[in-house]
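SAMPLE LOG
Freezer: B-3
Tube label: C17
Construct: single chain, 450 aa
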Amino acid sequence: MHYLSIYTKIVSRLILVSSLIITGAMADEVIVSPTVDSAVSNNVPTVGPSRPKNIIIMIGDGMGPAYTTAYRYYKDNPETEEIEQTVFDRLLVGMASTYPASVSGYVTDSAASATALSTGVKSYNGAIAVDIEKRPLTTLMEKAKTLGLSTGVAVTSQVNHATPAAFLAHNESRRNYIDIAEAYLSSDADVILGGGQQYFTPTLLEQFSAKGYQHITEFAQLESVTKPKVLGLFADVQLPWVINDNQAHNLSHMTQKALDLLSQNNQGFVLLVEGSLIDWAGHSNDIATAMGEMDEFASAIEVVEQFVRQSKNTLMVVTADHNTGGLSIGANDKYEWNPQVLHKVKASPDAIATCAIAEDNWQPLTATLLGFTPSDAQYSQLQAARMQGNEPLSVALRKLIDIQSNTGWTTGGHTAMDVQVFAAGPGARLFSGHQDNIDIATKMFSLLPQ
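STRUCTURE (predicted):
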């Protein structure tokens, strides 16, 4: 039975590859988006070439299906009977499994999943574009470069974090941040935007400048950048939480600038956009902060969606690398979820904790920032946590928000749940239905210029 199973998998993979080759050969045919009812979907566009000039892959790190569902209810207008669709609803085309190489079991980390999405090969947890023998694998962006396309990344974590690293570098461990940053020099990427200033030494930055990169550290400087190459490092590590500055739209602005710069190449481009901090909020079981990150990722998707509408030769593929936190929309045997609570939270729990520790009369300030007044018993619990420092108080505040909103979590890590796939533009039909994450990469490779 073991050999039969292996044989079946090999035959299935050969059928997939054959279908991709056939699809790639039909470069002049008009086949684009999945077949959908136009009355209920706004998928874009429906007419265009079958082979895209540009490919944009967007990854909501940790964004399992519960996150997009929660986001729909979070964005719902309570004054209407209808529950309004989100960008995720109108672009949904399929699902993907995320398991890593068998040596790491069924639950992936971001590095192994990003390696699968960037190379089409399963590897171990922690691997950055290397196989299980730690040999380098050709990435989508490396292949694009050999074909004369421009490449770029725009992320809300440090730019050398696991996901962007697996598209631009090779390393046996995602933890080797300095080595990965140095490897970016040889990636020849045209646009690198995000956080991570602490990993780029003055000497390394001089080397980037010598290669023609414009190094910027303030978002306001993006306006002055009119051509590649650019290395934008806007924070020491991660970018600020959206909930603490929801007017900044950092990811949306980085995405738009990346599109403006990369589209100057008439041969096309490949761009990675990651809503990195959805995952970080999920690890902390922080529903209010997670919804803020989801909101900005959705805004960035809409920026790309508009670009796809206008260009008609650009494929966008949106997915998650894995599911984080085991988010439950409703908990404690109660048939309810209260997202209106989250709209009233005025800052991230860690920021609220910092303010509460610095203020002697901390209770009124905490209630104002939470958007609700804790009970006397809850204030006592917060006081006990406050005496232990910022992190214990942050945890207590997150749990209090969970109680008010009736949100549940099963873990502070990842789960093996399948994730959603969203797509629009030339070739979008290929991503319909169930697939594995390596199939997503294989399909994108097949759509590159021949």
